[in-house]
Design a protein that fits this description.
768 residues; alpha+beta; Jelly Rolls; Glycosyltransferase; ten-stranded mixed sheet; seven-stranded antiparallel sheet; 28% strand
Length: 768
C-alpha cells in the first residue's frame, strides 16, 4: 500500500499480556450496496480479528515472525460478507514472537515491550466510493479471558472472564481503557509472500492410562505441532492443566528435552460447558499429561466416549502437498512419513530447527540441508521466498553476513555460549543453496532474481574469509554437526575436518552462484564466481587431496567431494571406492552428521555403489535412518540416538524428537528409488530413472510439477522390472532403466518392461 489511514495502537493497560482492542463505525449511505470489503491486518505481537462477532479468517499467529526491525507483514482478508450498517472490529493480541520468550537465554521482549494491533478496513460501494476505517486513538482496550500466553510456556485461559458482548455495537464496560497510537514508521509494513498458518487436521487420542506416578497421560499417536482443544464441564473455578511432551521415559512424560519451556496450558472452568482452544501458543507433542479433569480419568473417558474431551489440533503453514512416495517396505514408508510430519511441524511460519523446546529458531543450516526435500514434499516456493526476504534483510544489516538463524533474534539475545557470529559453511550457504533448490524445483527465474544480490553478497564475503592459500581454513565452523560418533555434549566434534567441509561448501556455493549468474544473463558475475570456484578447486586439490585420499578420510568429506563435483574422474572413482569401504567398515550404519547426511547415498549411487546406498538406507541398528522408526518415531529426530535402545532419552542437553534436517534422505528416495528428477529446472524435462535395490519389490512416486502430475510405479519380480509412467502434457522425459538405453517420452502414460541382469549399481543419479 502506498499509504495507510490506520495506525498501530497499543492498550493503555497490560491486561495480562493478551488484551482486546475494538472500534466501530457506520457505513456511509447513498452509495449503493457494498461491493467489497477488505481488511488489512497486522500486529506487533500476534493478532486475531473479528468483524461483527465473526472471525475474519481462519489464519493463525498473524502476522507471524519476520525481521521485525525492517519488515512487519500484513494479511489481506476479504470480509465483504461480514460488514453491516454498523460494523465492529475486534482484535485479540498475544505476545507471539515479538514480545514472548525466545531462545534458551531466558529473555523476552527482544523486539519491543508494547503489543500493538493494526487494522484497516476498506469498503468499496457499488458506485465506486470507498470508505476507510481503521485502528486509531479512538479505539478502546480491555481484558480478555487469557491470563497469560507464551509460545514456549503455554496459555492460561479463565472461562469466567469471557464476555462475547465486546464484539457487539455500543459495548461499554468497566475496566476498559483507551489506547495510544505508536509513532513507528509505517514503511516496514509488507504483504505476506508465503502462506498463513492454519489448522491442518484434528487427532483424537489413541490411548489413555495412569502413569506409574498416578498421572493421567494421553497418547495422540503422532508427534505433532499445535495444541489440544478441551471441551469440558465442571465446577466453577476448577483448573484443568495440560502438559505436553514428545516422548515418554520410564512411563512418565519426558519433559527434560524441553529444557526451560513449560509447554503447559491451564484452563479455569466457568461452571458451565466450556470449550478451550489456546491459539496464542503452540506445542510440539505426542503425549499430554492431564491434571484436574472433573472426576479424573473416569470423567475424561466418559467425555471422550461422548465425542468431546480432548482433541489435538495440528497447525502448520498452509502448504499444498505435492510429492508422495511409497514402497513395499513399511519401515521406509514410515521414514518418509516422518519427514513429512517433521516438515509440517517445523514449517510454522519460519523453517525452524524444532518446535518444542526453548529454541524453535530458523536455523539456516537445517533448511540448507532439507530444501530439496521440502520442495518435493510440498509447494514450498512462496514460504521459502518469504523467509529468504528476511535472510536478505538480516544479511544487509550484518555487512553481508548470513546469521546462524533467520530472523536473527540471537543478535538481541546475546547467547554467550555460541561463538561470535560470522559467515559459516552450510549455515550461511543457505542464502545460495535454498534459492537454487527453489529454482530447480519450480523453474521460476523470479526466485533467482530476488535472491541473487544476497547470493552474491554471501559469496563475496565468503571469499574474504579464505586464507592466502585459497582454503577456508580459518574461523569457527559447525562442520559435520551431530556426527553420531561425537560425544553427546560435543555436537561440533566430528570425524570430518571442519575446514575441509567448509572449503567444499565454499566451492559448491561459488559454483552455484556462477550457474545462477548464467541463468540471469550476468556474464561478469558468472566469470567472477567461476574463477572463484576454480581457485577453490585448485586449493582443495593441492592441500587436501593426496593420491586420492581426502584429508580426514571419512564418509562426509568423500560424499561432499563427489556430489559437489570438485574431483576429476579418476579421483572421483577412488573417492567412491573409499566411501563404499568406509560405509562397509561402519557396518552400513550412519557415520555422517548434518553436512554429509544429505549427500552420502547420492555419492554412493553416482560412483557405482547403489547396493551400499540401499544397505545404508535399510539398516535398522543405531545409528541409522530406520533405527528411530523401530523405536516408534513418528517424526525425524535431531540425533540418530535421541532415544537410546534402552528407552531412555539421550543425555545431551540438545535432544529433539522433531528435527527435519536428517530427513533429507527423502530427496534421494524421490529421485533414485522413486525415479523422478528434473533435467531442466521446473521439470520441463524430467529424468525418469528408478533404481530398484535392497529388499524393495515395488515403489511408487508422484509429484505435482509446475506442468502437471508426473508419476512412476515400478514392480520387480522374476527378474523383470515393470514400470508405469505418467508424464505431464507439454513436457518430455528421458527414461533410463537398468540395462536399457535412454528413451525420450512425450506427455501421457507409458509402460515398459526390462529384463534385470545382475547389479544395477552403475545406474546414474542426478542432483540439482
Amino acid at each position: 500500500m502506498s499509504f495507510w489511514h490506520a495506525r498501530f495502537i497499543s492498550p493503555d493497560a497490560e491486561f495480562g499480556g493478551a488484551p482486546l482492542v475494538r472500534g466501530e463505525f457506520h457505513l456511509e449511505e447513498g452509495h449503493g450496496k457494498v461491493a467489497s470489503a477488505t481488511l488489512f491486518l497486522s500486529a506487533l505481537g500476534i493478532v486475531e480479528a473479528w468483524v461483527n462477532g465473526r472471525r475474519a479468517s481462519e489464519d493463525l499467529l498473524t502476522p507471524g515472525w519476520s525481521a521485525y526491525e525492517w519488515r512487519v507483514r500484513y494479511a489481506e482478508l476479504d470480509v465483504t460478507a461480514l460488514v453491516g450498517p454498523t460494523t465492529v472490529l475486534g482484535l485479540a493480541l498475544g505476545n507471539g514472537w515479538y514480545r514472548g520468550r525466545l531462545t534458551w537465554t531466558g529473555g523476552s521482549a527482544f523486539y519491543g515491550k508494547e503489543l500493538a494491533g493494526f487494522a484497516e478496513l476498506r469498503v468499496r460501494f457499488a458506485d465506486g466510493h470507498e470508505q476507510v476505517f481503521g485502528s486509531d486513538a479512538s479505539w478502546a482496550a480491555g481484558p480478555s479471558s487469557t491470563m497469560s500466553n507464551d509460545l514456549y510456556d503455554g496459555q492460561d485461559i479463565d472461562a469466567r472472564r469471557y464476555d462475547a458482548s465486546w464484539l457487539s455495537p455500543g459495548f461499554a464496560a468497566p475496566g476498559w481503557v483507551g489506547v495510544h497510537e505508536l509513532v513507528d514508521d509505517m514503511a516496514p509494513l509488507e504483504p505476506y509472500i508465503g502462506p498463513p498458518v492454519r489448522r491442518q487436521a484434528e487427532l483424537p487420542p489413541v490411548g489413555m492410562w495412569e502413569s506409574p506416578s498416578g498421572k493421567v497421560i494421553l497418547d495422540f499417536g503422532q508427534n505433532i505441532v499445535g495444541w489440544v482443544r478441551a471441551e469440558v464441564a465442571g465446577p466453577e473455578g476448577s483448573v484443568v492443566t495440560l502438559r505436553h511432551a514428545e516422548v515418554l521415559e520410564h512411563g512418565e512424560l519426558g519433559t527434560r528435552p524441553l529444557r526451560s519451556a513449560e509447554a503447559t496450558d491451564r484452563f479455569t472452568l466457568s461452571g458451565g460447558k466450556d470449550v478451550f482452544e489456546p491459539t496464542l501458543t503452540f506445542h510440539g507433542f505426542r503425549y499430554v499429561e492431564v491434571n484436574g479433569w472433573p472426576e479424573g480419568i473416569a470423567g475424561l473417558r466418559a467425555a471422550l466416549s461422548a465425542g468431546g474431551g480432548l482433541t489435538a489440533v495440528v497447525i502448520s503453514s498452509d502448504l499444498r502437498r505435492t510429492g508422495k512416495f511409497e514402497t513395499s517396505n513399511p519401515l521406509v514408508n514410515r521414514l518418509h512419513e516422518n519427514a513429512v510430519w517433521g516438515m509440517r511441524g517445523n514449517f510454522v511460519d519460519v523453517p525452524t530447527d524444532c518446535p518444542q523446546r526453548d529454541e524453535r529458531l530458523g536455523w539456516t543450516g537445517d533448511i540448507a540441508a532439507f530444501a530439496p526435500s521440502a520442495c518435493f514434499l510440498f509447494d514450498a516456493k512462496d514460504f521459502l521466498r518469504d523467509w529468504l526476504r528476511d535472510l536478505a534483510l538480516e544479511q544487509e544489516h550484518h555487512d553481508g553476513m548470513v546469521p546462524y538463524v533467520v530472523p536473527d533474534v540471537l543478535k538481541h539475545a546475546k547467547a554467550g555460549e555460541l561463538p561470535v557470529p560470522d559467515t559459516t559453511a552450510l549455515w550461511s550457504d543457505a542464502s545460495v543453496w535454498v534459492p537454487w533448490a527453489l529454482w530447480q524445483a519450480y523453474g521460476d527465474s523470479r526466485v533467482l532474481e530476488e535472491a541473487f544480490p544476497s547470493m552474491v553478497s554471501h559469496a563475496r564475503r565468503l571469499r574474504s574469509k579464505l586464507s592466502p592459500n585459497g582454503l577456508w581454513d580459518r574461523g569457527f565452523q559447525f562442520g559435520d554437526w551431530l556426527d553420531p560418533d561425537a560425544p553427546a555434549d560435543q555436537a561440533a566434534q566430528a570425524k570430518a575436518d571442519a575446514h575441509v567441509v567448509a572449503t567444499l561448501c565454499a566451492f559448491r556455493t561459488a559454483d552455484l552462484v556462477a550457474q545462477a549468474a548464467r541463468v540471469l544473463g550476468d556474464g561478469a558475475a558468472e566469470a567472477e564466481f567461476r574463477n572463484m570456484s576454480m581457485s577453490l578447486r585448485a586449493a582443495f586439490t593441492k592441500h587436501y587431496l593426496t593420491a586420492g585420499v581426502i584429508k580426514s578420510d571419512c564418509t562426509t568429506v568423500y560424499a561432499l567431494a563427489i556430489v559437489f563435483a570438485i574431483l576429476g574422474e579418476s579421483d572421483k572413482q577412488f573417492a567412491g571406492r573409499r566411501l563404499a569401504e568406509l560405509v562397509q567398515e561402519s557396518g552400513y550404519r550412519i557415520s555422517t552428521g548434518f553436512a554429509g547426511t544429505p549427500f552420502v547415498t547420492d555419492a554412493l549411487t553416482a560412483t557405482g555403489h547403489l547396493d551400499a546406498a540401499y544397505r545404508l538406507l535399510l539398516q535398522t541398528e543405531c545409528p541409522s535412518w530406520l533405527y528411530p522408526v523401530t523405536m516408534g518415531a513418528t517424526t525425524i529426530w535431531e540425533r540418530w540416538d535421541s532415544m537410546l535402545p534402552n528407552g531412555t532419552i539421550n543425555p545431551g542437553e540438545m535432544t529433539s524428537f522433531n528435527h527435519y534436517a536428517l530427513g533429507a534422505i527423502v530427496d534421494w528416495l524421490h529421485r533414485t528409488v522413486g525415479g523422478i528428477a528434473p533435467i531442466e529446472p521446473g521439470y520441463r524435462r524430467i529424468l525418469i530413472a528408478p533404481r530398484p535395490g535392497g529388499d524393495l519389490s515395488w515403489a511408487q512416486t508422484s509429484l505435482e510439477t509446475p506442468h502437471g502430475l508426473a508419476s512412476v510405479r515400478w514392480d520387480q519380480a522374476d527378474g523383470i522390472l515393470r514400470v508405469a509412467v505418467v508424464i505431464p502434457e507439454g513436457t518430455e522425459a528421458v527414461l533410463c532403466l537398468p540395462g536399457a538405453g535412454e528413451e525420450i517420452l512425450a506427455g501421457g502414460q507409458h509402460e515398459r518392461a526390462v529384463q534385470l541382469s545382475g547389479s544395477t549399481a552403475s545406474a546414474p543419479a542426478m542432483r540439482g
